[in-house]
Design brief:
Layout (H helix, E strand, L loop, with lengths): L1 H29 L16 H8 L9 H21 L12 H23 L7 H24 L22 H8 L1 H27 L1
Helix pairs in contact: 1-2, 1-4, 3-4, 3-5, 3-7, 5-7, 6-7
Length: 209
Amino acid sequence: MKKFRTFFFTCGILMAASEIWKQLTLTFLINQGAYDWWYFPFQLCSIPMYICLILPVISNQKYPHLHQILLTFLMDYCLLAGIFAFFDTSGMHYDYAPLTFHSFLWHILMILIGITAGLTRQADYSLSGYLGGTLLYAGLCGTATLFNLTLCQYGDLNMFYISPHYPMTQVVFSEITKQFGNSIGIWSYLLSIPVGAGVFHMMWKKWAK
């Protein structure tokens, strides 16, 4: 497991360093010193960075259940988010080419992290493991909603793309929003993610047997 800890921590450091570069570039090069809260690093695709940084600290011996939940989240939700980001890359393009390059590399790395988490055989491939990862996802959605409602006074932000202040823009779900309203669009988006993660979890479970 040591080599996996090294891999995850290295990925976490690389992602954190590149995120700092991104924030500085957006603030000082693109926005002339004004911070843009729209790019505050708390999207679903940002979470693997934080998990990779704390995984080496959370020992499998001392905190086995939490360790398994984090790995399970990576192999289900991180892998899902990384792959499906390429089905609609509109949000990955910037007017500044290095930022676009960074965005594509970030999501490719997410896919590699998700696959590696599944290959460790340290994740929980059972139903309870999926439920644990889903509870973490629900908690993160709640935190994102709190940010959306409290930080909006400082600028535009849409964490997890579920802010009630903005219409759903994600592909497919934007059409649902047009037909049935923004609340239905947001909830259908929120619920579709655990469904997709569940499909990945079943695939990992079959592989782990």
